[in-house]
Design goal:
Helix content is 28%, strand content 19%. The chain has 475 residues and is an alpha/beta fold. It has 3 domains: 3-289, Rossmann fold, CATH 3.40.50; 297-370, Ubiquitin-like (UB roll) (Roll); 384-443, no CATH class. It has a 6-stranded mixed β-sheet. Strands 1-12-11-10-13 form a 5-stranded parallel β-sheet, with helices on both faces. Helix 4 (189-203) packs across helix 5, helix 4 crosses helix 7 and helix 9 packs across helix 12 (434-474). The longest helix has 41 residues, at 434-474.
């Protein structure tokens, strides 16, 4: 099988050995979960429960007041009693409203069998006989978002406004340390393939590619076997890519597997593709087969300060600090940095008392040797950031422009096309935190757009009021 790739990119240490090939372990039943009511990219939700309410596992507990296209509900991940509804710090380092549910019972008594009396799942639905609208509604009702990190509502991706002819299952998992996508392809290939077939049915696309890096080539026979046994219609193939960062980015994967390029400011559908993470596909299959909402998350817990690195499955809202030390042991004396996500694109947080969310792919507990705290130096214009940017942008110009508050030049240099992969920061000899600058720059630009829109609206309202007053005076 040929091995494809994209232009540029980095060869970074994978650091996956600690959890590679390890099975996913179910966490001990948590005594509580802290569930953010907003875990998606889109319009905000509101709580549907109150303190004191008893909820079942799988019960919908938050949704938009007027559910629109960019909304997905949130469900209880354990059965228990709602103790509080209050702001808590989340993995993006901002405070958001969370529903705190306390489990009833301890140990085995806290375990809830899926499908039992303490669960409230959706009824099973045949994805191959139901209508397209019913299928999209099921995916939304199950609260499924992209599990690769962005948290984009899945049902929106599967209703593209432009023609699509290729579905790509993203199993590249190029981030160092993380191994849950590999675990999904190892332990649940039947669900991944079924989820892919469901997506093909919904979109009417007959061609699909399961993209993986060549460090997972040993999984190909198993996946191809599931494709044969499934007997699904359409052409499902495995595409092998070089182990190169950021191969798992959807734009990079599209370029490697199809040779197509997503245009500036565009989306995968502009290149005729839809990209879905393999974990998302597995969740889609369970939403139809079991009626199970997205209430559990597979993730990797690793890093030099983790004495028991492993892949785990945890109810959404679980706090790492609530897990028994014999299950997840942390060397607190060596702990210097906590990351939610991978080391290249993840967010650093201040403590382990942050809830696991739908898009939490890993928690990395890093030692001093695995990170750096050096002060930034001056840019020496070495050009490494330009040579290694997979999007072929100009990070150095973007940085200078943002420092000068020159958004026009920053936008021209590619600010809004930046995928925040961290390649420029990784290669910068001056240790300039470029990705952080670009994230803040995007937030400032969007805030400026909102402010300008509000000013225009106010000016239009004032103009209309003045015209109405003048008209009344003439009358």
């Amino acid at each position: 099988m040929s091995v494809s790739t994209f232009k540029r990119g980095l060869r970074v240490p994978t650091r996956k050995a600690a959890t590679e090939g390890k099975p996913v372990e179910l966490v001990p039943p948590p005594k509580q979960v802290v569930i953010p009511i907003n875990q998606h990219f889109g319009a905000p939700n509101q709580s549907l429960v109150q303190a004191g309410d008893r909820v079942k596992r799988g019960q919908k507990i938050a949704d938009a007041v007027s559910p629109g296209p960019m909304t997905v509900p949130v469900h209880a991940s354990i059965a228990g009693v709602v103790k509080k509804i209050e702001p808590r710090t989340q993995s993006n380092n901002s405070e958001g409203i969370c529903i705190i549910i306390e489990a009833e019972g301890e140990g085995p008594a806290a375990l809830v069998e899926d499908g039992g009396p303490d669960t409230e799942f959706l009824p099973p639905l045949d994805p191959f006989t139901c209508t397209r609208e019913e299928a999209l509604s099921r995916i939304r009702d199950a609260g499924i978002v992209g599990m690769g990190g962005a948290g984009f509502p899945c049902h929106i991706k599967l209703a593209p406004s432009k023609p699509v002819d290729v579905i790509i299952a993203d199993g590249a998992e190029c981030e160092p340390y993380l191994t849950t996508d590999e675990a999904a392809l190892t332990e649940k290939p039947h669900l991944v393939v079924k989820g892919l077939a469901i997506v093909m049915k919904i979109t009417g696309v007959n061609r699909a590619i399961i993209g993986m890096e060549d460090n997972k080539a040993h999984l190909i026979p198993m996946i191809e076997r599931e494709v044969r046994l499934g007997g699904y219609s359409g052409d499902i193939q495995v595409g092998l890519c070089k182990t190169l960062y950021p191969q798992g980015g959807e734009k990079m994967l599209i370029a490697a597997l199809t040779g197509r390029e997503v245009p500036s400011g565009g989306l995968p559908m502009d290149a005729g593709c839809i990209v879905q993470n393999v974990g998302t596909l597995s969740a889609i299959a369970e939403a139809f087969t079991l009626g199970k909402p997205l209430i559990d998350r597979d993730l990797t817990v690793s890093g030099g300060a983790c004495k028991t690195p492993k892949n785990i499955r945890a109810p959404i809202g679980t706090l790492l600090s609530d897990l028994p030390p014999e299950f997840i042991a942390i060397d607190r004396s060596a702990l210097r940095k906590i990351l939610f996500g991978g080391p290249m694109m993840g967010n650093a947080v201040s403590s382990i008392e942050i809830p696991i969310q739908k898009n939490t792919s890993g928690i990395i507990l890093m030692t001093e040797a695995e990170t750096w705290t050096e002060a930034e130096g001056p840019c020496i214009r070495c050009g490494r950031c330009l040579r290694n940017c997979p999007m072929r942008l100009s990070p150095v110009i973007m940085n200078y422009s943002l420092e000068a508050d020159d958004f026009d030049t920053a936008l021209t240099a590619g600010l809004m096309d930046c995928i925040e992969c961290g390649s420029c920061t990784y290669m910068c000899p001056a240790r300039i935190k470029l990705v952080q600058r670009f994230r803040v720059g995007k937030q400032r630009f969007r805030a400026r757009q909102v402010l300008e829109a509000e000013r225009r609206k106010a000016a239009e309202a004032a103009s209309a009021a003045k015209a109405a007053s003048a008209s009344a005076a003439k009358g």
